[in-house]
Amino acid sequence: MADKVIIFDTTLRDGEQSPGASMNTAEKVEIARALAAMKVDVIEAGFPIASPGDFEAVSRVAAEVKGATIAGLARALEKDILRAHEAVKGAERPRIHVFLATSKIHMEHKLKKAKEEILRLAVEGTRLARNLVDDVEFSPEDASRTEPDFLCEVVEAVIAAGATTVNIPDTVGYAEPEQFGALIATLRSRVPNIDKAVISVHCHNDLGLAVANSLAAVKAGARQVECTINGLGERAGNAALEEIVMNLKTRRDFFGADSGIVTQRLVPTSKLVASLTGIFVQRNKAIVGLNAFAHEAGIHQHGVLAERSTYEIMRPEDVGLQKSDLVIGKHSGHHAIGDRARDLGYELSDEQLTQVVAEVKALADKKKQIFDDDLRTIIEGVAAEAKGLFRLVRFQVASGSTTIPTATVVLQRDDEEPVQDAATGDGPVDAIYKTIDRITGISGRLLDYQIRAVTSGKDALGEASLLFESSGLRVSGRAASTDILEASAQAYIVAVNKVAALLNHKKRANGAPAGDEHP
Ligand code: KIV
Ligand code: ZN
Q1: Do 256 and 402 have their domain in common?
Q2: Burial of residue 505 (number of CB atoms within 10 Å: 0-12, 13-18, 19+)
């Protein structure tokens, strides 16, 4: 029987450290639910001491997401470990993940501490965490650049102090596969109590080797891999979960090991994470890219039609790609749409379902065929709206080669009277955004703005996604419509609503009077 490789997902922690990938608590809970549905073994939900928002997200994931171990990250400091414990203690299976750098370069320049002190802090931190929970992971940060003798000493000491998992990070993505595999083999042969803990790896992708290094480690005996959906993460990212999982499944003969992941959930989860973070994968990305199963050359198409295995080593349906995902039309009712939404991984309230059904019918009037991606886009738009404070009632734009672009926009905040305003801009989108700024009183900088077709055909839905910065907060916005100006307006409103919600949260945390709901 194949050995089990534990899949530790850190999309919500290291993944969130990707520039521009910040998510709010509701989005993190949504992703954590999708990860649990995919049967990820461990979900690292955040770094609780880092901010009140991180603490809240980890606590909510711990309380609400069942089926997976929920981990919180902590430096080897008492205050971090206690805070992490506070956040994860409501989980079915809580884990505290303690880390401390052990490489000469980090000890000297970052921590300014000698080896003896590092060893003492690692042991004390692990012991404290183990007094609080049964499941403790220790990471010697920058392990791949740590002197092997010292690494063995630290690993042995933290296992003796109660660590149940020792995670070996290639923090800066410096290792090469052969070398990294050899490092795991060294730990297995030289650390006397190594069989008392699971060996884990956490590889960064600076040289494009995160997946290769992680798999070399598995081949050498590591039995936990830390990874993220779509390979998100600090700088060039972490090992991509979908690539690790499909390597193990497709080449089980080679690894003698496999994960317990429901692989059919890989593509839907990848899409969910992309849409919530605003970071999309390239078309030719392995496993989850749009082209991953597309055969262009005639000779390949001919081969696949005759016998799929001529050019396909995995089946598209095994990663959650459906060839024919034509789902619903004008006449589909609540039942069919609700069922399909559930298949796609969404739990909708009755109110949300009613709104989704109305939007599906409106779209069916404009567009002949409705695909899963259309439905997904509508559902996420409805969910985003429900979370928001401002709602687009209507808009109108005058634009042309001899006209100054002018927008008129009507917004409504909760149940208040709708507010109308108008402004000119450098183009129609700029005019809409300037008008929204005037109504909401929230203005900022647009750091990124993209329009793309998300579904097929001339009548495809256009999706606007953007990155917006205001009052020191960086948020993403995304929306889709057959009208790209409407999609642009809605995406901007999603982002503005996030800023409004974060500012309200900050105000409340600073003791603003109750009822002061708006910035
Ligand atoms: O890259 C790294 O070393 C980390 C640790 C906290 C595990 O993210
Ligand atoms: Zn990392």
Answers
A1: no
A2: middle
Residue type, 449: Y
The residue out of 331, 350, 373 marking a domain boundary is 373
User: Could you say which ligand is closest to the alpha carbon of residue 231?
Assistant: 2
Read off the tokens for 458: 């001339």
| Among protein residues, the one whose CA lies closest to atom 6 of ligand 1 | 99
The helix, strand and coil proportions of the chain, stated in percent and rounded to the nearest 5, come to 45, 20, 30
171 Cα: distance to centroid of ligand 2 (angstroms): 6
Distance in angstroms (rounded) separating the CA atoms of residues 22 and 55: 14
Is residue 182 in a domain?
yes
- Looking at residue 246, which CATH number applies to its domain? 3.20.20.70
Cα distances from 204 to residues 14, 225, 235, in angstroms, run 10, 12, 8
Pocket test for ligand 1, best of 204, 213, 226 (most atoms within 8 A of CB): 204
Residue 457 has a pLDDT of 64
User: Cβ distance 46 to 16 under 8 Å?
Assistant: yes
**What is the rounded distance in angstroms from the CA atom of residue 434 to the CA atom of residue 425?**
7
Mean pLDDT of successive 10-residue stretches along the chain, which has 519 residues: 95 90 88 97 98 96 98 98 98 98 97 97 98 98 98 98 98 98 98 98 98 98 98 96 98 97 95 88 90 68 72 89 59 79 77 85 74 76 68 93 93 87 95 96 88 70 85 80 92 87 63 35
| Ligand 1 near 139 CB (within 6 A) | yes
Task: Please tell me the residue having the least CA distance from ligand 1 atom 2.
Answer: 171
Ligand 1 closest atom vs CA 238: 1
Top mutation candidate among 171, 234, 238 for ligand 1, by most atoms within 8 Å of CB: 171
> Atom of ligand 1 at shortest distance to CA of 226?
7
| CA-nearest residue, atom 3 of ligand 1 | 171
- Reading the block at residue 271, the tokens are 């899409």
Find the helix or strand (DSSP H, E) in which 84 lies.
Answer: helix 78-88
Report the atom number in ligand 1 closest to the C-alpha of 172: 1
My answer on whether 340 and 428 are in the same domain is no
Q: Are residues 20 and 156 in the same domain?
A: yes
How far, in Å, are 387, 391, 419 from residue 415 at the CA level? 14, 10, 11
Residue 170 Cβ < 6 Å to ligand 1:
no
pLDDT at 516 (0 to 100): 28
Q: Which atom of ligand 1 is nearest to the CA of 73?
A: 6
CA distance 200 to 138: 10
User: Separation of 97 CA from ligand 1 center, angstroms?
Assistant: 10
Using the atom order of ligand 1, give the atom closest to the CA of residue 13. Answer: 8
Residues 407 and 364 in one domain: no
Predicted confidence at residue 462, as pLDDT, reads 83
257 and 170 co-located in one domain: yes
What domain count does the chain have? 3
At 139 the pLDDT is: 98
Q: What range defines the domain where residue 232 resides? A: 3-277
